[in-house]
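Sanity check. The docking grid for iron/sulfur cluster depends on where the pocket ends up, so I'm generating a full predicted complex first rather than guessing from homology. Inputs follow.
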Amino acid sequence: MSSPVEKGMLKCEEDPQVSKRAVSSVSGKELGLPEVSYDFRGDRFWRKIPGWGEVTAAEFGDYAWQQRNSVTSLSQVGKVLGPLLTDPLAKDIEAGLERTPMNLRMTPYIFSLIDWENAVDDPIRKQFLPLGSQFLDDHPCYMDDSLDEDGHKATPYLIHRYPDKVLFLPITLCPVYCSYCTRSRVVGGSTAVKSKSTYGAKTGEWESTFQYLRDHSEVEDVVISGGDAFLLRPEQIKEIGMTLLDIPHIRRIRFATKGIAIMPMKILTDEKWMAALELVSQTGRERMKEVCIHTHFSTEGEMTSWTLLAMQELVNRGITVRNQSVLIRGVNNEFEVMYRTIKKLAYLNIQPYYIYVHDMVPGCEHLRTTVAEACELSKRLQGTIAGFNTPRVVCDAPGGGGKREVSSFESYDRELGISTWSAPSVRGDQKFYYYDPIDQLTEAGQKFWADQNGLEERLAAMKSETR
Ligand code: SF4
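Predicted complex below; grid placement will be based on this.
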C-alpha cells in the first residue's frame, strides 16, 4: 500500500484539477510585470543528489526521514553530493564555516532544491550554506542583538517591547539554520566564531512566562518563535496554545515556523503535531480568537508540489498562514524575484505579510541591502497585487525601535548610508539608526567608513546634527 505522501505525489501529478492549475499563468505584460507561472514542481528532484538517487517519494515525503537525513557538516555535504562537490567549493564551504555565527543544518528537501552545478550563485544555497569567499567585514555598527531583545526581557523566555504584543521564545533550535538569522546570538549552538547558550524546549520552566502574561492585561498578541515551533513536541504545542487561549485578554497567537518552506512533509505526515495545532486552532475559533502560523519563504524556488499539498492540508484544517521574508542580497532583492514570490505565496493562500530590511547582525554584511533599495522595491510592489496581499516592507529599527515602514525614516544620508528612525508610540523621542552595507555606498561613503580615525566622534557629531 502506498503512503499518504506517495498518494499525495500521485495526486499532484495526476489530479486534473492540480494539473489544470499547474499550467495556468497570469500575464501582466501590459503593465510591464514579469510573467508568473503557477507551476509547482512535482518531479523527483532529490534524485539528482547522488546520495539520494534511490530514495522513494514515500521516504522523502516522511518528515522523520527528513529530520534523520538532515545535512549538518561538510563531510555530510560531501557524502551526499559525491562528485558534485568540487574541491574549490568544498574549500570555500570550509572557509565559510570558520566565519559564520550559524551552524550548518539543512533538510534534504531544501538541500535538493539547490542547483549544485551553479551552487555559488544559487539563491537557496546563499541562505543556508555560507562560503568563505562571499563574506565581507562586519559593519562597524553591527550589533549581536540588533533588535535589543535582551534589553526587553520580561521573563527568561519572553520579550515585551510593544505595548500589546509579546514574543515568547520557548526554544532556540530549528530544523534548518539560516545565515541571515536575527537571533544568531542564541539560535543553533556555538560555532567557530560565536559561543552561545542555545536551549531546547523546557516545559517545566514556562510557568513564570504564563504568569507574567496572566498579570499583564494589556497583552493581546503572542508570537511563539525561537527557534522554530516546528520543533516543539505536540504536547508542547498544546500546552502553550491552550494556556494562552485560557488567558482572557490574549486574543491572537501566532506560531512562527520556517517549516512549511523547508520541510512541508511534516504538515503531511506528522499527524500528532498537526492534530495538536488543529486543536489549538479550533479552540481559538470557538473562542473567537485567532491562531495562525507565520512562516518564512524567501523565493519562489522553495515552493513545490509538496508545498501545494501542505498548504491544502492547512487550508482544510482552517489554519491561516502568513509569510515574513527577509530582504537578502542576491537572493530576493530584485523586483522580479519578489514579485513572483509574492504572487505564488498568495496563490497558495499564504498572505505575504512582511519584507524586512536585513537586521544589522554579524556575519551578514554580504547579504544586506540598502534602505534605498528596499524603498524602491516597496514602491514597485504596491499596486501589483491586492492590498491585503501587498507585503509591508519594514526596517526593524536597530536598538529596539521596532518595525518601521521603510519609507518612514526621519532622515537618510545616502552617501554615508545612515538612516534615522523614530518610534513615537514605542520609544518616545528616542532616535534609531540603520547603516547600509558599506560596499554598496559611493566611493566617498566608503572612504568615510574606511577611515577609522575619530570615527566614533564623527558619528556622534552627525547624530547630534540630525537631532
Ligand atoms: S528558522 Fe528562523 S530562528 Fe531558525 S535559524 Fe532560520 S531565521 Fe533563525
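Relevant for the grid: Confidence is low (pLDDT under 50) at residues 1-5, 7-23.
Also worth noting: Residues 357 and 395 are 5 Å apart (CA to CA).
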